[in-house]
Every structure is written in C-alpha cells, then in structure tokens.
C-alpha cells in the first residue's frame, strides 16, 4: 500500500458492533462510529454467482459498507468490516430466533467451520487497503442435553453473532480447537488494521 498522508482526516468505524468499537478503543484509536446503512442480502444477491464464495462476499460487503459511509463523509478514512461463516461452500447468516440458533449449532456440531473476517479502508469512495483473514473453528460433539441448556441459558444473545456463540462467554465450551487469530474471530483483524492505519498516517503509534 502506498503511504498517503491522512493526518487531517477523521477516522470512522462503519459498524455498530460493540465488540469492534471496544477493540479499537482499547487499542487507543480516536474515531467516530457511523454505522453503514446497507441491505446486505440485496448486495449479496446482486453479486455474480461465480463470486459468491464466503471470502469474496465478506470483502464485498465490507467495501460496500465503507463506501456508503464514505459517500456521506468523503474526507474521512472509513473502516469497513464484515464477517461470514461457512461450512464448506455453505454460508450461514445470523439466526433469527433461539430455535434457529439451535438448528445452526446442530449442523455445526462435530465439524470445523470457518469465520472469514474482511476489513478495508476507504476514503472519498476509493479503497486504500483491504484484507481478509480466516479462523478455523472445530466444534466438539456436545450432547443434545448440553445444547438445549446452552440455548436456554443464552437465548436472544445467540442472535448477535453469526455462529450463535461468543468465545468470551459460555460459547467457548462448544469447541475442541481453534486455529486463528482471536481478533479475527471477533470480527476485526486488529493487527493488520493498525499496520494499515500507520501506513496511512492515521495511527501515529
């Protein structure tokens, strides 16, 4: 990435995710939160069929979100993010009810699925940088009894993440092994982002 001076440019996170906001705050970044207003499913459906793989979808949506906010605030450097979850070629979306969450976890049980976290920087509609990182998530063969109790105990909280789990909570008990960066799993590949912001002159650390 070519270094571009952005010292006068505000930094914006185009996501309403509390987790992403906290990660950036904890890293000492100064930024605004301006959630993107896009219809993710419509954007996905408009993609060419041969490009609807999990990684391409995540990156396409991250850029679309950043560009939507950039159109409103063109002088800012906008961080766009998206995460897809996939099992082979099958792509999952967030569950709508706890019952949907239970069905998703029944499908994932005993198998390794992928979390594909895409991130980009956009200014004046131009993509300055883009990156996708992947984490492999090996779920254990938990019992039906555990699954029922897990869904009952966590309820609506399961609907906030595409995998129906939060690793910082009871969700960690669903897994045998994890292969990937913790920040990627949370939906924000933080180290690559911080490096890119330094190259842009936004992060002066």
Radius of gyration equals 18 Å
Broad shape = globular
For the record, give the distance between the C-alpha atoms at the N and C termini, rounded to a whole number: 18 Å
What is the CATH architecture descriptor?
Alpha-Beta Complex
- CATH topology description: Maf protein
Discrete helix count: 7
Poorly predicted residue ranges:
2-7
Given the helix and strand composition, which structural class is it?
A: alpha/beta
EC number: 3.6.1.9
Subcellular location: Cytoplasm
Family: Belongs to the Maf family.
Function: Nucleoside triphosphate pyrophosphatase. May have a dual role in cell division arrest and in preventing the incorporation of modified nucleotides into cellular nucleic acids.
């Amino acid at each position: 990435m070519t270094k571009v001076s952005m010292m006068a440019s505000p930094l914006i996170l185009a996501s309403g995710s509390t987790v992403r906001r906290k990660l950036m705050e904890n890293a000492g970044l100064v930024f605004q939160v301006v959630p993107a207003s896009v219809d993710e499913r419509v954007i996905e459906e408009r993609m060419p069929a041969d490009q609807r793989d999990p990684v391409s979808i995540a990156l396409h949506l991250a850029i679309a979100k950043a560009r939507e906010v950039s159109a409103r605030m063109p002088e800012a450097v906008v961080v766009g993010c998206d995460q897809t979850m996939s099992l082979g070629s099958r792509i999952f979306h967030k569950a709508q009810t706890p019952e949907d969450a239970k069905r998703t976890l029944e499908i994932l049980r005993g198998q390794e699925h992928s979390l594909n976290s895409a991130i980009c920087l956009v200014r004046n509609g131009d993509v300055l940088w883009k990156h996708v990182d992947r984490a492999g998530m090996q779920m254990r063969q938990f019992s039906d009894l555990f699954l029922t109790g897990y869904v009952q105990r966590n309820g609506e909280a399961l609907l906030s993440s595409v995998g129906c789990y939060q690793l910082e909570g009871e969700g960690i008990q669903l897994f045998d092994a994890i292969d990937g960066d913790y920040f990627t799993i949370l939906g924000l590949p933080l180290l690559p982002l911080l490096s890119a912001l330094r190259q842009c002159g936004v992060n002066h650390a």
